[in-house]
Amino acid sequence: MLNNARLILIGGGTCSGKTTIALAIGRRLHTLKTVIISHDNYYHDLSSMDRETAKAYNFDHPNAIDTDTLIRDIRKMLDGEAVNVPDYDFITHKRSEGKLCVAFADVIIMEGIFALYYPELLAMSDLKLFVDTDSDIRLTRRLARDIKDRGYDVEGVLDKYLDTVKPSHDAFIEPTKKNADIIIPGDREFDKVLYMLNGYLLYELVNEAK
Fold this sequence. Notes:
The protein is of the alpha/beta class and 210 residues long. It contains 7 helices and 7 strands.
């Protein structure tokens, strides 16, 4: 067990493949206690808004995240404390107390579009990844996700993409690429990248744990 957990941040645009890569890294670190969380769980509770107002809300702006709570919980996890990571419902836009209690992790992987945006998180991190995926691929994935899981129709997804998602990506997310230690091409096979990352992480983390 490490004295302090290590924090890996995975950023990138909407539907770029951040969760897929986080899970793939987690599977490879099977000798370490690894926890994966998304900052999507820390969106502000909008359940008091009517449905249409909430749908128009800009979830792709950094202020949409409750950063005070997120950073507090990350610090606790890095110190080995137990944290109940909240749940967020993208249909009702309600944030509720979660059931996942995290304690004494060796590695914490946090993914999200703003993972490489907030200076406080960058300062706490040990490795920073940016998943760089073509915008057309990301839009196609977002269409499928928001129609299936979040109650949007095609027109609604495209309107939101043009009104808030793309402008916010260009203003807040794409610039965070400069904060990354490694840029991963999310629109191609990334097994070789993960293999190299796995070797690095196991060397750094396992050797320090001895």
